[in-house]
Amino acid sequence: ASVVDMGTLAVSSIAAIAVAAGCARVFSSRRRSQSSVALSATRAEWYRKVQRIGQDRAMFEVTVQKPMGVKMERLPDPKNPGEFKGIGISQIVDDSNTDTLNRKVCMEEIEGMWVLEGDRVLAINGESVEFGDIDDAVRLVSTSTGDEITLTLLRNTRKGPIKVIMMPEGRSAIVRRNSRLSAAAEYAAGKELKYGCIDGWCGTCWHRERSTDGIFKPCSDVLTGDWDNVMPLVLTAKPEKAGDSTFLKPRGV
Prior knowledge:
The protein has five helices and 15 strands. By secondary structure, the protein is α+β, with helices and mostly antiparallel strands. The longest helix is centred in the first third of the chain and has 12 residues. It holds the Pfam family PDZ_6.
């Protein structure tokens, strides 16, 4: 597939579409209460950042300083094998402006949305490229001026990859569906990990997810279509006492 490096191209920003603008919510920097009400509101804030299309699609806008530091490529047409339909994000360069924006949105919870590998590009600066190709993207970007670019993106929220962030290191990994969570944990640790059990009963590897307060077990969990990837999966180690699966005596909560 043809690939274009968007990191070296200059672009200008446009006004956000009405729906996306209406959906945007500013996150408070203060520490939130750990009550169930506060946790539900946190998840709701993420969901309000996008416009839902059907059961498994989310549309939103992202404005990034130039150069963006992303690569785009043509997307395969699932209905016509061997053919292509539209363009999508194939890579985000480390320490680029897009990577910096992602860290601020996903870890510091600033206003706005973030970019994920696999996102389909519907428009660049308000001009549609839904059925376009790389040449259309190059034309729109190279003829624009200004300090920013606005992308209208479409994300598959149930089949697309998941951004996993392991705290406190803050290292992230993009994980495909039906992959083991241990792959992301090992990437964050920078080494192969060994576990005390293989089914999560001992509690020593348990992690809490930031937005849902749910328990995730790297030794055994598989990332399925249940996770809505509008949100990053942000995990912090919260080990329990060995065998305490009843949550009666949790540690670090």
